[in-house]
Amino acid sequence: MNVRRRRISGIAATAATALGLGTLSACSSDSSAAGNTDKFDVVASFYPMEYLAEQIGGDHVNVTTLTEPGQEPHDLELSAKQTARMGEADAVLYLKSLQPAVDEAIAQSDVKTKIDAATLTKLEDHGDVEHDHGGEEHAEEEHSEGGEHALDPHVWLDPVKYAEIAQGVAKAFEKADPDHAADYRKNAEALAKKLGDLDTAYKDGLKNTATKVFFTNHAAFGYLAERYGLTQEAINGLDPESEPSPARIKELQQEAKADGVTTVFYETLVSDKTAKTLAKDAGLKTDVLDPLEGITDKSKGEDYVGVMQSNLKALETALGAK
Fold first, then answer.
1. Which residues are CB-neighbours of 98 under 8 A, at least 6 positions away?
2. Which of 87, 164, 165, 270 has the highest count of CB atoms within 10 angstroms of its CB?
3. In the 8-state DSSP scheme, what is residue 229?
4. If you ran DSSP here, which 8-state letter would residue 26 be given?
């Protein structure tokens, strides 16, 4: 998936959609493509937004992404070329507060249709749950809004909230490109069904487990945990790069014993060093739980649904699903 995807013909895209292979819909990672096609040009900030644009837009959109595969989206810095390209697009789809550089560029851009996914569902504060022991930079980020915890942006990991966002994106596409409104509606319904099936699979798979607690490298899974009655304990809080304190490591070791935790999860785009150290010290296994911030050739799945299904299998194993 690190190679650039080539745009395919409308017939092939239609056939792909019929087969449920939505990821083959007309799209492009070619950074020069936005604004220069006869399609509805959408700039997406990172993979979960790109996926929505592709799925809902189908043949009618040309999607480019600001975050390349394998790039950690939180740290994204935009080039002058990317910023200029944004101004040429018909629409930009992003999630405010996840990528400060993107927020800033969009605020200054005169692109006509700006779609902020954060306004299409309800964001929550999972700060207190995560016992964050991050560094100064993280503390700043956490308390950036009026001295309160920042809202958790990782809404796409809850299929129900992601479906709410998808519905809002479809409405924005319909309004901005009314000629293809019927197709956008139809594609959004197909996506809603996929996400509904995923939600059902998670509910059924995690209903009856030996433990409800899981350890993860960074606190991306608050919404998912809340949706399915689980407890996320993050080593690093919301910032994937911060180092946990020795006290935090000790606390997690004790909790692992008390709650029957078997596994420390790490992710594909961030170093697994801390997770492996904790696992070794506490006699736990490690596995991947992917926060789906980007798809690479290391991802356990070709697209959002595929990786979410792999995440479910990993959780079922770690939590002792019966």
1. 45, 46, 73, 74, 153
2. 165
3. T
4. S
pLDDT of 75-121, one tens digit each?
899 999 999 889 999 999 999 999 999 999 999 999 999 999 999 99
User: Tell me: the pLDDT tens digits for 245-256?
Assistant: 888 888 999 999
Q: Which residues is 152 bridged to in the sheet?
A: 124
pTM of this structure: 0.82
* Cα–Cα separations (whole angstroms), residue 86 to 7, 59, 198: 20, 21, 32
Find the angle CA(63)-CA(2)-CA(161) to the nearest 5 degrees. Answer: 55
The pLDDT tens digits for 8-31 are 333 333 333 333 333 333 344 444
* Burial category of 134 from C-beta neighbours within 10 Å (exposed 0-12, middle 13-18, buried 19 and up): buried
Adjacency order of strands within the sheet including 213-216 = 231-234, 213-216, 263-266, 285-288
| Chain centroid offset of residue 269 CA | 12
User: How far, in whole angstroms, is CA 29 from its chain's centroid?
Assistant: 17
CA 85, 91, 94, 96 dihedral sign is: positive
Contact in structure between 157 and 195 (CB atoms under 8 Å): no
203: left (phi over 0), alpha (psi -120 to 50) or beta: alpha
Count other C-beta atoms under 10 Å from residue 37's C-beta.
15
Q: Which helix (H) or strand (E) holds 310?
A: helix 304-319
Residue 123 is classified by DSSP as: -
